[in-house]
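User: Sequence recovery, please. Input:
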């Protein structure tokens, strides 16, 4: 075979398929917090489909379930743990100003 034809040939590398994040037995529901929380970032954002490796239908169902859980206060709208730690570490001082007349 010519070298020019070898360049356009696809390599026959074997690759390992990743397991799907949602198994067939898992039910996508707003009450299944352990499943839903896997698809939320540390900041509380819904992760994209490419990051999650989900199908379009699964991503839609996950998004709806996350939004329902947020409305019902099962999940927070955002993750405030870092903000709370920072707020507790900074001492607040209140200075009283007196008016001089």
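Assistant: Recovered sequence (101 residues):
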């Amino acid at each position: 075979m010519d070298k020019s034809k070898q360049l356009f040939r696809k390599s026959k590398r074997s690759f390992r398929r990743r397991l799907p994040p949602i198994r067939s037995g898992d039910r996508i529901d707003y009450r299944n917090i352990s499943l839903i929380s896997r698809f939320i970032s540390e900041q509380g954002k819904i992760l994209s489909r490419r990051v999650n490796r989900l199908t379009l239908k699964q991503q839609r169902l996950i998004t709806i379930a996350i939004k329902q859980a947020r409305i019902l206060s099962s999940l927070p709208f955002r993750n405030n743990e870092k903000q709370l730690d920072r707020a507790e570490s900074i001492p607040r001082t209140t200075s009283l100003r007196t008016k001089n007349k």
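The longest helix spans residues 56-71.
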